[in-house]
Amino acid sequence: MAAAARPGSPGPAGTGASRCSRRGQRIPPAPLSAAGRAGCRRPGALRLRLRGGPAPGASSPLGAAAGGGIRPQCTARRTDSISLTSPAGRPPGPAGPAPRPPRRHRQPATGVGPGAAPAPGTAPAPPSGTAPAPAPGTEPAPGTAPGTAPPPEPVNCLDQHVEKSPNRVALIWERDEPGTAVHVTYRELLDLTCRLANTLKKYGIQKGDKVAIYMSVSPLSVAAMLACARIGAVHTVVFAGFSAESLAGRITDSGCKAVITYNQGVRGGRIIELKATVDEAVKNCPSIKHVFVAQRTDNKVQMGDRDIPLEEEMAKAASVCPPESMDSEDMLFMLYTSGSTGKPKGIVHSQAGYLLYAALTHKYVFDYQQGDVFGCVADIGWITGHSYVVYGPLCNGATSVLFESTPVYPDPGRYWEVVQRLKINQFYGAPTAIRLLLNYGEEWVKKYDRSSLKTLGSVGEPINNEAWQWFYQVVGEGRCTLVDTWWQTETGGICIAPRPSEEKAEIVPAMAMRPFFGIVPVLMDENGKVIEGNDVSGALCIAQPWPGMARTIYGDHQRFVDAYFKAYPGYYFTGDGAYRTKKGYYQITGRMDDVINISGHRLGTAEIEDAMADHPEVPETAVIGYPHKIKGEGAFAFIVVKEQTAHIDRVKEELKTIVASKIAKYAVPDHILVVKRLPKTRSGKIMRRLLRKVVTEQSGNMGDVTTLDDPNVVKEILDAYQKYKEKSSS
Hints:
The chain is of the alpha/beta class.
């Protein structure tokens, strides 16, 4: 929650989503104490100190806070199903929630239905007509009568921590340059945020305006997100690798008034021309009034009439910026995901519910303890970076690592060298990176001390068993908890993961397992009926609202309804298939469009991929379904083999034998095609729908390919497929 959430506001009309339990009055933000603000008021040059922490009291360009006047106490009311209309029967508008009904006093919901007992371990709700009891360890503010609402608390992501521990490190920026790091305290981050926020306000950015952020991972990019939130503007972060066309499309769809960018980016030792990309994009974006340009490198770039040197303006700006008062259901940010229709979807997340969910999942899934160094190596351009680099960790007062580089720069030991040097306690990364590093062997891992690690996490796609075991045994030395997390951009935070759980409860390798607090997963059959019992498979849906769920697709609420609620009315359809084990754990089997039906047998392509990944010569696989005249559907496998592999035909036969022995003969792919690489997004996900287009010969209509890391991979695969067809026919 960036700006101050105004309590007492409803969740999405009719959904039963989180409401704040206080009375609904608009409360002005409270100023920080003199101690908390010490060192934050002096103007001067903005600078970063490398390696060590900043000098005491030094001013820095690194401040940002999700800014609101209070931390709302939010609860979710359980409903039998999810409704998408307001009390008047109208869906929420594309730019926000439905009109709020008249305020009325109400008892906070418990999340288990009216009149039901509170969940185990939770305190009962206060009697109707009384204020919520203060949290344990807190006292009413001076001058506040017992039982009445206290003055607003400091802002969630920065101010509250500056008030208590101004010199605690908020961010450690692991720059692309090996061995260099920037430590940023909460006080410095607040200073930077307020200066950036005041700069935006100076140039006309107001509450409700949209701002695009096109920056590499850095404290300044975090500050940009939180500065927008502080003044009530809506940020949409665009991954700093997207093309000018992709950037322009997102700017146009969201109606952004400004772009914040760097002159250049640096990643993997390469220079990325960010400002030049922005210049090309905004040529066709009349809504853009200003482009704020920061300096990541010393190289000069061309500056036009609407370009503003960001650091120069921030140095002149005030270091105090009162947070805007916001409704709990106001938009916090939009984040675009690619869609098969060719038009990216602007997923909208709200203020209070999103932050609450990000903070709770960060704390309990990873067992975060105060003083831990949390290392999520995701880019802020993705939802993982939003929730587990920025909002979740900062709300919890954590030290969060910003990783600007790549896993193999300057060598495949980069991750583990960073773990040793920064003494990272929780490490959260993608299976794609783990599989990549697995191919380089164990020596790059064992070269470095990883004794600081307590928890490992996997995110982005199902992790295969081989990668899980390597991650657990080699990286974690068999002693770290490994959580395979399942969630989506649309869910806002982790929904299914092995933790939290009872102490020392079992963790099944490569399985998400347990739903998080308030998440009620159900499996649905092809007729839209709930599948009861265990040892069953079906479409994974969620039966009741939760605080972090997306509120709409910006500008197209009907598309939101159609995509997530139409297939199974009353339930949120995740698009994934899942298997519920005999013990009741959940195993994600892949996207439903990645589930194939071979001779009446439903089979997740991820299962075939997992089996094939056991072959030592095959580091990567992707399996898709294709129409088969006899079986209905068949399996077509794309594989990448190691460079030294000589006998391709032998490898193919061995793969078929592995699949037959691990799954069944019916699961053996009819075709296996060797390619140099697979089509992946910049976040590492394999775009299997493109492979399906190739096999079904629909290459003329590929849909949205803007998220591909390298669009040239499509032509490479098409050429390989044509040669394979010609060889097969002859």
